[in-house]
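Onboarding guide, step 5: your first structure request.
Type a short instruction followed by the sequence, for example:

Predict the 3D structure of this protein.
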Amino acid sequence: MREYIKLAWRNIWRNKRRTLITAASIFFAIFFALIMRSLQLGSYSNMIDNAVKLYSGHIQIHASGYWENKSINNTLVENEDLMKTLRDNEHIKQIVPRLESFALGSSGPQTKGVLVMGVDPPKQNSMSKLSEKLVEGEYFQPGEQATIIGETLSEYLQLGINDTLVLLGQGYHGATAAGKYPVKGIVKIPKPDLDNKLVYLPLQTGQQMYMASSRLTTLAINLHDHRDIDETVTQLRESLSDNQYEVKSWREIMPELVQQIQSDNASGWILLAILYLIIAFGVFGTVMMMITERKREFGVMIAVGMHKSKLALIVTFEMIFIGLLGLAAGIIGSMPVILYFHYNPIRLGGEVAESIETFGIEPIMPMAWQADFYLNQTLIVAVIVFVSVLYPIYSITRIKAVRAMRG
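The system replies with structure tokens like these:
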């Protein structure tokens, strides 16, 4: 067997041009498959990061049953045991407390139903960069009697900086929730439905208005790496009592985003399938050309006594060597390209960028830098290459030595 392997290795370098052409077709196959898949996964990662940083976080913790019945009466109290469990989890990067409820927002004759979100100003700013979204005014401070509202809502209610927003709603256990707050800032929230209804209050101010001292509706959690979501959700569900708390991942909170990614992923796989088809024809065509070119050589070898099965084995080793050469070159060649665009994403412009920004997503196309898709794409292209080996084997078993030598 070792002699056949040596013979195959020497054979592929007898005609370097033929070997390099065949290896090049495999190089471009794996190179473009990796670049395309990396762009897809990088775009999904960007969409997820933007969505969770803007609103949901990677994971949310509520009082048990809150997600089905979003009531100010169904809230939790931030206690030391709960916070210690969260802080001790190695995947958790950030915990942002919130109190969310609905109210009627009014200014002069204008009235509108709004979503009031009591937030810890420094923690919320660290998570969603809210201060960077200000188009007018300033960011508020903890405990301040002031509000920040969405730009579209400010236009509807005809509110400017230092104008007063009146809020009226139902507080904790049926208490009346009412308050008047000067507008300290107006933010442009890159999500039209939120920009049209969101009112931020400092957490303590919101708790005072809803008569819900120390109570929270949500603990929004950000992770160091979004790929650890499933593991972290499982750990938290095992650690926290089902009777007291519910743990929701962003996929359960934003199913519409999951559907959007699944739909795009399906179309991406169709494009990849077309690319694989082109790759398969390219590799197969190159192999056919190589076999046709060497037919006379094979005829001579069979005529002098080499068994067809041994000749097929040597050619199989040759194709394996060429395949591994092309795959290795493609993987190594794609790494600097993917790494560069992972840290320096392609920034979109014009109408495309504006369209993407309306969904609250930064208009960039980063490439994903992760091992799993390298393995998947390499295996798929390797299968295509090794299926192409079947043709040379079949051709060799059908060779008639005399006819092959005559050409």
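Each response can be followed by summary notes, for example: The chain has a mean pLDDT of 85.
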